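Table S2 (continued). Query chain:
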Amino acid sequence: DQAGTVFIDKSTDATTWRAAAQAAVTANVPVEITARITTRYVRVRFLNGATLQTAFLLSSTMQRF
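Corresponding output:
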């Protein structure tokens, strides 16, 4: 219910992470981002804006091409 930024990160060793894609998120507005991942490890993360969340849902899926 608050603004922030969503990231898809990738890594070859699960220690050093690099952003593969990112998008600004407006409160209560769904966002879809995609990234082509060529590394072994991937994670999705959300960085809060200035205000703490009171309700939050983050979903992710992977699809092989």
